[in-house]
Specification:
- The structure holds 2 protein chains of 2 kinds.
- Chain A is α+β, with helices and mostly antiparallel strands.
- Chain A has helices at 29-34, 69-72, 127-134, 150-153, 186-192, 235-246, 273-283, 293-299, 338-347, 381-398, 402-409, 428-438, 445-448; strands at 49-55, 61-67, 77-81, 111-112, 118-124, 138-143, 179-183, 195-203, 215-220, 226-230, 253-256, 287-290, 306-314, 320-332, 358-366.
- Chain A has 13 helices and 15 strands.
- By secondary structure, chain B is of the alpha+beta class.
- Chain B has helices spanning 25-33, 88-95, 105-118, 124-130, 141-157, and strands at 3-10, 13-20, 51-54, 57-60, 73-75.
- Chain B has a 5-stranded mixed beta sheet with strand order 2-1-5-3-4, sandwiched between helices.
- Classes of the chains: A alpha+beta, B alpha+beta.
- Chains A and B meet through helix 1 of A and helix 2 and helix 3 of B.
């Protein structure tokens, strides 16, 4: 049951909540309990054909020859679609916001890069006839060496998974093969810390397993457009992706969706719509392309695996003084959204703690695994798992209670975060206090009295002197125009990220006035106030 | 392909269709009768979202050959509403937030109906057992269990 703790930050909030804390029936609830909610697959269209794809049986192979002679003659087959039939057979999802290079074909042409990659699409009168035709396709593969481990993939001489990124790492801003965070001198702090703890963490890929599998139905409309019923979680994203791949204006499509049978991030990749619409374009008939359960589980994109190394320096009194992190995000064979996951991974360092020396390198790595995608906090979840496991181990190392250890190291309002942004609206201390109370976990009075609004800032607001990396620095190109680097105006005035060694440490940035009372506290995430 | 004539009762009405050999009941209901309330989730009997009642007994329509229901009575979620009014189970699901994406809901409701029809006052353990063949991926099972218990209480007092 939802419990509102109005005693916390009571003086900083307008107490005029109209919906929160009150029960309100969802607008789609009646449809759900009567079975009348309309999912993409609940549309039965006259003359509908069925599309199924031929998937690679190899994790990495050159395609020597595709023989469809027997499949073409198979009963019920209306059309066999090859990569050469796709108007723009190379795409990357985030190209819609100018982020990354096109690296993934809708249908593989020269080679396959993961097991299950689509090679042909077969449109037939029934699903059964489509499957029968698939069994008659002959593909001659030349198997290539594979790489499934993120660190192996970055070693010199590793098989090149995706030729768009020959070093098997996503390249940011055309220059950088990883996301970097530098704040203070982590190595110096580790050298003088009372204890140093280095650990390796690994999170596996996780399948979303929605009860409704991915799919879509596309049909020629009466006005020259195509109506598309889809399971997508990202309707407008899918519209634009289809427009790009099929090389038509986006108003060619009338997408209908919004009722999704479970997504969790696994339905944002526009997996079925482009081929489904192309099938409708090439046959003039409604076409349905829906994943079977096995396809969903084996070839639907999972949450990407992450490997994380953390090396922390901690003092006997419990203060974490240095955190050094190296992380690898397993993107699988193509980028999809993993480049963004690595950005989020780096942005989350060093967790919700004030640590004066932080060093982070995060790589988005290509392997011959199923391409990864979004899933509930992807990029952050695995990093949090690693950081919080590490916090428990550190508390144990210095003989502190893990709850008190977190309160001691928690960030507080006014602290400088490793990204050189001032911490605002922090509430970790209060969350830990409530969690301890709920769990009947005893914490000492001084920790019960701690507050996110006390004892932050001051020396904790300083930006420490940060040595530049020793290797030659690459000149960054002109700023890339993406939503990711659209900084708010306030951030433009910050000191240079890595001042040259002779420069004196920059003075602590002047703190703006303490957060004012009122609702501003909760609407200032982006530096703007509600009123 | 040879088609077989098939006649059965669907939600209280007599229906007749022609099916291909091997057609399962889920496909027959959705694509030949047009009743979209049972859902396809796995086609392997693993998720329960295609659950229907055959002569009052809970069955997975994706694993039931359509021809085997000849002359029998099939009930889907579409049979549950009583005129313009929700069935007590539907009301309880709505009131207890027992549906999020809604995709497992048809199967959950049929499993719950099968339980309450034979045991109007089930224990919590019996409710858990009754929906153990139905997978939910977003609501979470607790609100569903609570809804079924609430509906059974409502019946007992009615």
């Amino acid at each position: 049951m939802l419990e509102l703790r109005k005693d916390i930050f009571a003086d900083e909030r307008d107490d005029n909540l109209k919906e929160i804390g009150k029960g309100t029936q969802r607008q789609d609830m009646l449809g759900h309990v009567t079975g009348t909610s309309s999912y993409f697959n609940d549309h039965k269209l006259q003359g509908m054909l069925h599309l199924k794809v031929v998937r690679s049986t190899h994790s990495h192979a050159r395609i020597r020859r595709i023989d469809t002679a027997d499949a073409d003659r198979s009963a019920g087959v209306r059309r066999i679609i090859r990569g050469s039939d796709v108007p723009r057979n190379l795409n990357t999802l985030l190209s819609l916001i100018n982020f990354g290079k096109d690296d993934e074909p809708s249908l593989a042409v020269d080679k396959v890069r993961y097991k299950g990659e689509p090679i042909l699409a077969i449109v037939a009168d029934s699903e059964r006839e489509a499957f029968e035709a698939i069994a008659k396709v002959r593909i001659d593969y030349e198997p290539l060496p594979t790489v499934f481990d993120v660190e192996d993939a970055l070693k010199p001489g590793a098989p090149v998974v995706n030729e768009t990124y020959p070093k098997n790492a996503f390249i940011y801003h055309d220059v950088y093969d990883h996301q970097k965070l530098r704040f203070g001198d982590a190595d110096a702090a580790l050298a003088t810390a009372d204890h140093v703890l280095e650990q390796r963490y690994q999170m596996s890929p996780i399948e979303h397993a929605p009860t409704e599998t991915n799919g879509s139905i596309a049909a020629p409309d009466t006005n020259g457009r195509y109506v598309v019923y889809t399971s997508t979680q990202a309707l407008f994203f899918s519209v634009d992706t289809c427009a790009k791949i099929l090389d038509v204006p986006s108003n060619t499509f009338h997408f209908i969706g919004g009722t999704v049978g479970g997504g969790f991030g696994g339905k944002v990749d526009t997996l079925t719509e482009p081929l489904c619409i192309l099938g409708a374009m090439l046959t003039g008939r409604p076409v349905r392309y829906v994943f079977g359960r096995e396809e969903e589980m084996q070839y639907g994109p999972p949450r990407g695996a992450e490997r994380i190394y953390i090396k922390d320096g901690v003092m006997r009194d419990g203060r974490v003084v240095a955190r050094k992190i190296r992380a690898y995000f397993d993107s699988g064979a193509y980028t999809r959204l993993s480049s963004y996951a690595a950005v989020k991974c780096a942005a989350h360092l060093p967790g919700p703690y004030t640590i004066p020396n932080v060093y982070g390198d995060v790589y988005c790595v290509f392997t011959n695994r199923t391409p990864a995608t979004a899933m509930r906090g992807f990029g952050v979840t695995a990093m949090d798992f690693a950081i919080e496991c590490q916090m428990d181990k550190l508390a144990n190392l210095v003989g502190m209670d893990p709850m008190e250890f977190r309160i001691l190291n928690a960030y507080r309002d006014g602290d400088m975060k490793a990204h050189r942004r001032e911490a605002k609206n922090t509430a970790l201390i209060e969350c830990v206090q409530v969690a301890a109370e709920k769990a009947k976990w005893p914490i000492r009075d001084e920790f019960k009295r701690a507050s996110s609004r006390k004892d932050g800032g001051g020396s904790r607001a300083a930006i420490p002197r940060t040595p530049a990396d020793t290797h030659a620095r690459t000149i960054a190109p002109a700023q890339q125009r993406t939503t990711y680097d659209r900084l708010p105006a306030a951030a433009l005035h910050e000191p240079p990220r890595e001042p040259p060694p002779p420069a004196p440490p920059p003075p602590p940035s002047p703190r703006p006035a303490s957060p004012s009372h009122g609702a501003g506290r909760f609407s200032s995430v982006f530096g703007t106030r509600r009123r | 392909m040879a088609k077989t004539a098939l006649q059965f009762r669907h939600n209280g009405s007599d229906v007749a269709i022609f099916v291909d050999g091997g057609t399962n009941l889920l496909v027959a209901l959705r694509e030949l009768i047009g009743d979209m309330t049972p859902k396809f989730g796995c086609g392997q009997g693993g998720c329960g979202t295609c659950s229907v009642l055959i002569d009052g007994e809970l069955h997975l329509s994706c694993l039931t050959l359509a021809e085997t229901v000849a002359g029998r009575s099939v009930e889907t979620l579409d049979s549950l509403k009583q005129g313009p009014n929700l069935h007590p189970l539907q009301r309880a699901f709505a009131d207890n937030f027992a549906a999020q994406c809604g995709y497992c809901t048809p199967g959950m409701l049929m499993a719950a109906k099968a339980l309450l029809d034979r045991n109007p006052s089930p224990s919590r353990a019996e409710v858990v057992e009754a929906i153990s063949g139905n997978i939910c991926r977003c609501t979470g099972y607790e609100p569903i269990i609570n809804a079924i218990l609430a509906a059974s209480g409502g019946r007992a007092s009615a």
